[in-house]
Design brief:
transmembrane helix; cell membrane; globular; single chain; membrane; transport; BPD_transp_1_N
Length: 350
């Protein structure tokens, strides 16, 4: 009689199946909600396609072509089928398919979110560690005050102030956009990331120009991510600094820097990786206002322009892509956490 698969193997398969089913249900719900939003918004796609001066026959033909003459449940099924086949419709704003537009603008958003995450994590982690080490003291209060401002100040206001001070007054950074006009149409788009494309083109001056355009919007986003990362790092560190092994290390006379970075910080790396992944996901979906203020040609600006142009295919397609990216990043953060945390791996294996 042949033995069945190991218990650990069955548990892993069951966990993977549950993850896939949960992800599928979440994405299905996202698509359905996106579709319903498109039907609730008081914009008539058929009128946009046919034009304001179209006659009844042309208007009705546009409704038939868009499938708006079908019952709502049939429209939903048709929308689901098109999305599964990668068809997000055609943009009336650009004349291209929404999938082509998203593929063109999404790298700009990813580049901005990555730069903001690097700034936020690079500043937020040491600030959180210092605040935890000086809990209740001046340094802790300063870090918490800076983080509170990061949560409270509207991003569009901070972006406008940053442009006024650092671009218009001081001239330390470049203005809106990704590149100056002299470079915008001469650098071939290979990856969609302006710093990489300028490097591949062998144009250091263009690369410097791209960095000068990137640094201010990335710093604005980085400030908001820094507030979240610093708060989470502080909480995780305070929890670790109260553990018995920290008291034992101090009793043995270990240096404070070693206790902070060699013991306590080392034990928060697993949840901190999850925090960083979630920070990146939040910046992907939260870059709309920043891109609008800085005319950064990413998916946030694309959605905003499409909304003003009443281009619902572009609005829904862009929103859906951002939502899918956020869901996938959340799932990836959960998988990373489970993979790195030995306790969760053991629980899954039991």
């Amino acid at each position: 009689m042949r033995a069945g698969p190991p218990v650990a193997g069955r548990s892993s398969i069951k966990a993977a199946a549950g993850l896939v089913v949960g992800l599928a249900v979440t994405l299905l719900g996202l698509v359905v909600v996106t579709f319903l939003i498109g039907r609730v918004v008081p914009i008539d796609p058929a009128l946009v396609v046919a034009g304001d001066r179209a006659g009844p026959a042309a208007y009705q033909a546009a409704r038939v072509a868009l499938g708006l003459d079908l019952p709502l449940h049939e429209q939903l099924l048709l929308y689901l089928w098109n999305v599964l086949n990668g068809d997000l419709g055609r943009s009336t704003m650009t004349g291209l398919t929404v999938a082509e537009d998203v593929a063109r603008v999404f790298p700009a958003t990813v580049e901005l979110a990555m730069a903001g995450t690097i700034i936020g994590v690079g500043l937020g982690v040491p600030m959180g560690v210092i605040a935890a080490a000086r809990a209740g003291r001046l340094a802790d209060h300063l870090v918490r005050a800076v983080a509170l401002v990061g949560y409270s100040v509207p991003v569009f206001w901070l972006g406008l102030v940053g442009l006024l001070v650092f671009y218009a007054r001081l001239g330390w950074v470049a203005g809106p956009g990704r590149l100056d006009v002299v470079w915008a149409y001469t650098i071939p788009e290979v990856t969609g990331f302006v710093l990489i494309d300028t490097l591949l083109a062998g144009e250091p001056a263009a690369m410097l120009d791209g960095f000068r355009h990137l640094i201010l919007p990335a710093a604005i986003l980085g400030y908001f991510s820094m507030a979240y990362v610093a708060r989470m790092t502080r909480s995780l560190m305070i929890e670790q600094l109260g553990q018995d092994y920290i008291l034992a290390a101090r009793a043995k006379g270990a240096p404070e820097a070693q206790i902070l970075w060699g013991h306590a910080f080392r034990n928060i790396l697993v949840p901190l990786v999850t925090v960083v992944a979630l920070t990146f996901a939040h910046l992907l979906e939260g870059a709309v206002l920043t891109e609008t203020v800085f005319a950064w040609p990413g998916i946030g600006l694309y959605i905003t322009q499409a909304l003003f142009a009443a281009d619902m295919n572009a609005v829904l397609g862009g929103t859906l892509v951002v939502g899918v990216a956020f869901v996938l990043m959340n799932r990836a953060a959960d998988l990373i956490h489970r993979r790195l945390d030995a306790r969760l791996r053991n629980e899954a294996a039991q």
